[in-house]
Structures are given as C-alpha cells and as structure tokens.
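User: Here's a chain of 302 residues. Predict its fold as tokens.
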Amino acid sequence: MGAAKQSKAGTAPRSAAHCAVFALAPSWPLARALASAKGVPAHVIACHRFPDGETLVQVPARVAEQAIVVQRLHDPDAKLFPLLLVADALRRAGAQRVVLVAPYLPYMRQDAAFRPGEPISQRVLGRLLRLGFDRVLTVEPHLHRVQGLKQVVPGGEAISAAPAISEYLLRRGWRGVLVGPDAESARWVKAIACASGLPWMVGEKQRLGDRRVRISFRQELPSTAVMLVDDIASSGATLARAARGLRRMGAERVEAIVVHAIFAPGAAERMQAAGIARVVSCDTVPHRTNRIACAPLIAQAL
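Assistant: Prediction complete.
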C-alpha cells in the first residue's frame, strides 16, 4: 500500500518519522489506506483482553512526535476506553501530539436532555475525547443544535463527504434529482448538487418515535430519477418514508446514498420494501454497501 509500512507493536519503527498512523486490528484497512495516502508509516496496535474483561494495549516502544490514531467508533461502548488507553500509551512512548481519526462519531444525536433524567450524551463523549486527544477528525457528524464540532470537543474538525459523493455521482454518470429528507441535510445536499451540477430539493421531517417519522415535500419533482442523500441510515425509517412519498409524487426509480451505514437489524429490508432500488454508502462504517472511499478526504484534512 504505497509508502505505508507496518510495524509490530513493541518494536521501534525503522525511522524516526515525524508522523505515523496507528490502529487496532478492526480499523487497520482504513489506517493503511490513510497512511499510504500520507506517505507515512502505519502500525497495528497489539490488544489483549484478560479473562475478567479488562483490556491491555501495546504500541511500539518509541513512536513519532505526532501520532494519528484511526478508530472506527460504530458500536462504540466497547471501544472508547481502549481508545483512551491507546492515547496514554502513545504519549508514554514519546508522542507529543495525538490525533484521533474517527470517521463516524457516535452519540451526536443526543445533544439535549429530551426527557427529565436523561444525560446529554454528546457532551459526555466530548469530555471523554478531550482526555486523550489534541485533535479529533470525523466525517459528517450528526450535529443539530450545535453550530460546529468544536462546541462538542475542542480541536474537533468535521470533514464534508460532499466532494467524495459528488465524484462518485460524476463517475457513474448519474443524472436525476438529489433529495435530502429534511432541513438538516440541506447544507450538504446543496454542496453535492453544486459540485455535480444536479438539481436538488429537501423535505420536511417530523420524528414521531425511534422508527416513526413523517416526511413531506412541497416542491414538484424535476426528474423521475431520484437519489436520496442522508448522513446516517440506522433504522432506515427516514429513507423508507421519504422514498414512499417520492414514489407517490411520480418518482420511477429511487436510490440512496448515505455517509454512515449503521443499518440496525431490518433496516435494509425496510428500505427495499419502500422501493429503494439501491443503497450506496461511504466507508466510514464497514458495510457491504460501501462504495465511496473517505481516506483521500481525511488525508487532505490532515
């Protein structure tokens, strides 16, 4: 993979590079691609799980001044504490600056206490990441009531997936209308449309529960070919409801692009039943629908 070099944990790197990429095994493919794009070494972090459920990580004995940690944070609860152990180990091994690349950032939707007695999970995660990292990069975080990622975690930077999605659409030669399911999607659906020269529109969404939403569209469809675009597909309810509404408006073929393919059980079937012919996703979360690589975007941001 280009200039990326793998090093076993516990041994010193071959060269005293100013920067290096580190990852636990599940995030290694993305880390290797990112290191290759940056032309820096990459190292797999050793991880041991004790019989009592505790975790021990091990990085090389000496590391670069700047350490970039790549960690996919879907299913986050079992990953967050080992991630802090990695940050501590890297600093003890000589890293002066530790950067986290988490293509998908969890707990962003709970940005308020919606009912008495609930936490504000977004703020809790921000405080946690501040313990270990000087800088946090993520792709299209689900921010609603906050203006930017820096309000969640100082040093946080959000990377737009719009350039990669636009490039994918242009490469496919796809023509039709881009549709965002709600006002939250308007900013980056517009960015994709401007880069790809396609018309766009957004709907209005009212959430009725975890899997129940109401979506309406006030504009007429300028094309019978529709590409739904959303940041997250979790239950699939939003995209399914939007697809049904668009078909009633005259859409003949509905496809979807999502950035983060969370896909809870039943989500794919729900979207297919609603008439979505094809779903494509970015590779921020590993899934069989991954078609759009984000490593080049992250490398550029770094």
